[in-house]
Specification:
Layout (H helix, E strand, L loop, with lengths): L1 H18 L5 H13 L1 H13 L2 H11 L1
Helix pairs in contact: 1-2
């Protein structure tokens, strides 16, 4: 579960990075905190993570290495 939670944080951060170009790391973390503090956003993210296929992520990671 800890690994899945960490992956969730990383995926959200990655999405912020691609969507909001030019903001610094502190702003990205602040935006991440705002997203997770909002109960509706947090609910949607958790629902998405429960249906996320982690085997695809593992295959992608193995392909990159």
């Amino acid at each position: 579960e800890d690994a899945k939670t960490m992956l969730m944080f990383m995926k959200i951060y990655e999405h912020i990075e691609t969507r909001f170009k030019g903001i610094n790391p502190y702003q990205k973390i602040s935006l991440l905190k705002e997203i997770l503090d909002d109960s509706e956003s947090r609910k949607r993210i958790c629902e998405a993570m429960t249906t996320y296929d982690f085997s695809l992520e593992k295959k992608r990671h193995n392909y990159i290495q």
